[in-house]
UniProtKB/TrEMBL annotation:
Keywords of the record: Disulfide bond, FAD, Flavoprotein, NAD, Nucleotide-binding, Oxidoreductase, Redox-active center
Positions that bind NAD(+): G176, G177, G178, F179, I180, A181, C182, E183, G263
Organism this protein belongs to: Paracoccus versutus (Thiobacillus versutus)
Residues the record marks as active site: H437 (proton acceptor)
Record-annotated FAD/NAD(P)-binding domain positions: 5-319
GO molecular function: flavin adenine dinucleotide binding; glutathione-disulfide reductase (NADPH) activity
Cysteines engaged in disulfide bonds, as pairs: C43-C48
Full protein name: NADPH-glutathione reductase
GO biological process, one term: cellular response to oxidative stress
Pfam families per UniProt: Pyr_redox_2 (PF07992), Pyr_redox_dim (PF02852)
Length: 466
């Protein structure tokens, strides 16, 4: 049977664009791609990229304070102009979107700027009614922010809205304690909004190493965020120009804006997946195997829509591996076991890879190396903020199983640490590296003695000979 395309991709985000571009430019496939919104997807248009630029903007006040600590008189006496910054941000996003589109077009991909849904295992239907057939279909539609199911939830903003605000709210409530809640609270407080963060748990960033969670929670407070733990909204009501939030404990307060950062869910609704026989998981994600293949052999899926590891670089790797496997005859699976990530809080980021201390404790024994110190740069400027670095080391093999950093530019450091960890480096390998002095990262290769040993000896460990 002759198809219109070798590959049709639904979704022009990180994973879809990479798969389309590699299939077309490297392997000569005839590729079509449909995007209903803007090319670049969540990461470029309403996620990582604008978020990080906002983090930079939000840090200017603290940078000025640090400058004053270094003798610069009058640093930071200006005021932040949201309209100017925002206009520049939107122009930058337009530029990036253009680059994504031209990257596809130059690779020979036919781009359809409209919604597409599955018609059957080999056919997509565009919003204008056009039906296009393809030998393979890749679904890369990502996820969408979720609001909690409470009365008045529609009065709350979601993360997408932060990037389209006309002006910053005077007083804002951020709900949640994950990546987005921590980063957005950091941004909003740093740009001048009085920020309250309500999180139902006992420390932000559930799933991270407990010591890092504690430091991240304390840092939010130190930069001025009113962090309320064990707190959750029960309902929202419009009141004047603001929103009245009634909390689960019965208390209520008015905010200029409420922002839900309460997780994201796969964007699979209305795509025709069930009708085409594609099996979905409990959260509506497309169930795929290790080759990103769905229950329908011609249909594949990558990125957040599969709800595996929901990070841009993972989606990119999945999209690239799919193209290599299907069109390049170079079968490549993605190893999701050891993926580094960073939360861009300020002044210190939280970065992580591998086992946390708590996870290691459960399967120990493990040696925990911790360096906790005040970085010379902020100390000199008058700050008491501590940085913390932790290595989790297998007590039997000496292999480094995890690394957790709370400190300036922790994201930059964890990227490099991902290399030796992926190669199975031992603590002795770390020790063999000569430090670069004076840096923060040198602490990672100069931790001489473990702070503690956790976890019982493995049950199946052979008994020591008598
Ligand atoms: P997360 O899953 O990280 O956090 C969701 C938060 O919302 C948790 O604190 C959760 O609480 C809370 N929550 C969930 N449901 C409710 C509810 N019904 N009522 C109250 N609180 C609730 O999601 P995010 O939205 O922060 O981020 C989504 C994804 O985006 C992440 O998985 C991450 O991979 C990605 N991301 C990555 C970034 C990075 O790499 N720097 C930056 C931003 C996003 P609890 O902990 O109790 O479950």
């Amino acid at each position: 049977m002759k198809f219109d395309y070798d590959l049709f991709v639904i979704g022009g985000g990180s994973g879809g664009v990479r798969a389309a571009r590699i299939a077309a430019s490297e392997y000569g496939a005839r590729v079509g791609l449909a995007e209903e919104s803007r090319m670049g997807g969540t990461c470029v248009i309403r996620g990582c990229v604008p978020k990080k630029l906002m983090i930079f903007a939000s840090q200017a006040g603290a940078a000025a304070a640090e400058s004053r600590g270094y003798g610069w008189q009058g640093a930071g006496e200006g005021r932040f102009d949201w309209a100017e910054f925002h206009g520049k941000l939107l122009r930058e996003l337009d530029r990036l979107e253009g680059a994504y589109t031209s990257g596809l077009v130059n690779a020979g991909v036919e781009v359809h700027m409209q919604r597409a849904r599955l018609h059957d295992a080999h056919t997509v239907e565009l919003a204008d009614g056009q039906r296009l057939s393809a030998k393979h279909i890749l679904i890369a539609v990502g996820g969408r922010p979720q609001r909690p199911d409470i009365p008045g939830k529609e009065l709350g903003l979601i993360s997408d809205d932060l990037f389209t605000l006309d002006r910053l709210p005077g007083r804002v409530l951020v709900v949640g304690g994950g990546f987005i809640a921590c980063e957005f609270a950091t941004i909003l407080q740093g740009l001048g909004s009085a920020t309250v963060l309500a999180y139902r748990g006992d420390a932000v960033l559930r799933g991270f190493d407990a010591e890092m969670r504690r430091h991240a929670t304390e840092q939010l407070r130190a930069i001025g965020v009113d962090v309320r733990l064990g707190t959750n909204p029960a309902r929202l009501d419009r009141e004047g120009a603001g929103v009245r939030v009634t909390f689960e404990d019965g208390g209520s307060e008015i905010f200029d804006a409420v922002m839900f950062a309460t997780g994201r869910a796969p964007y699979t609704k209305g795509l025709g997946l069930e009708e085409a026989g594609v099996r979905l998981g409990r959260r509506g994600e497309i169930a795929v195997d290790e080759w990103s293949q769905s229950s329908v052999p011609s249909i594949y899926a990558v990125g957040d829509v599969t709800d595996r590891v929901n990070l841009t670089p993972v989606a990119i790797r999945e999209g690239h591996s799919f193209a290599d496997t299907i069109f390049g005859a170079r079968p490549r699976k993605v190893d999701h076991r050891l993926v580094a990530s960073a939360v861009y809080t300020r002044p210190h980021e939280v970065a992580t890879i591998g086992l946390t201390e708590e996870e290691a404790e459960a399967c120990g024994p493990a040696d925990i190396y911790v360096a906790s110190f005040r970085p010379m740069r902020s100390l000199f400027a008058g700050s008491d903020a501590r940085a913390v670095m932790k290595l989790v080391v297998d007590g039997e093999t000496d292999k480094v199983l995890g690394c957790h950093i709370f400190g300036p530019e922790a994201g930059e450091m964890i990227q490099m640490i991902a290399i030796p960890l992926g190669m199975g480096a031992t603590k002795a390998d770390f020790d063999a590296a000569i430090a670069v002095h004076p840096t923060l990262a040198e602490e990672l290769v100069t931790m001489r003695k473990p702070s503690r040993r956790v976890g019982a000896a493995k049950m199946d460990k052979p008994a020591a000979s008598a």
